[in-house]
Amino acid sequence: MFIYPMLLEKEEEPFSDHNYLFELKLDGHRMIYSFENTKLQLFTRHFTD
After folding, report:
1. pTM higher than 0.85 for the full model?
2. Integer Rg of the chain from CA
3. d(Cα 46, Cα 4) in Å, to the nearest integer?
4. What torsion do the CA atoms of 34, 16, 26, 11 make, to the nearest 10 degrees?
5. What are 6's strand-pairing partners?
6. Chain segment 1-27, per-residue pLDDT in tens
7. What is the 3-state secondary structure (H, E, C) of the chain?
8. How far apart (Å, rounded) are the C-alpha atoms in residues 28 and 34?
9. Is 27 left (phi over 0), alpha (psi -120 to 50) or beta?
10. How far apart are CA 41 and CA 7, in angstroms?
């Protein structure tokens, strides 16, 4: 199952909310993983397997 990720948006002010988690973005590829029925898949944000 592929769930589309949130993409970057420009904001004027910093965002902070205890209901959200934030990740540090380093140079490289952002990967999304799906683990369903013992099958693991990795995807890019463009749904490249």
Report:
1. no
2. 14
3. 8
4. 100
5. none
6. 667 776 777 878 877 888 887 776 666
7. CCCCCCCCCCCCCCCCCCCCCCCCCCCCCCCEEEEECCEEEEECCCCCC
8. 19
9. beta
10. 20
